[in-house]
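Sample entry (65 residues):
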Amino acid sequence: MKIDTVTSTNTSYEPGSIHILEKKLLVGTGSTALSIGFLTPAGKSRMDAPAWINGARITDGEYFG
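Predicted structure, serialized as C-alpha cells:
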C-alpha cells in the first residue's frame, strides 16, 4: 500500500492503530496521529481515505500490520 497526502494531527494513538473520525482515517505513530488523505492499495487505483474505509470494511481500533 502506498500512502499519499498525510497530515499530522494533535491527537495521539498507539502505533499502528487505525481510527475513523468524521470519515477521516487516522493512524497512530506513537507521538501523534497521521490523517491519511489518499492512498493506493496494492494492485488498485489511487483513492481517498473514505472510499478505502468503505471498501476495506475497516473498523475503529484495528491495527495495520
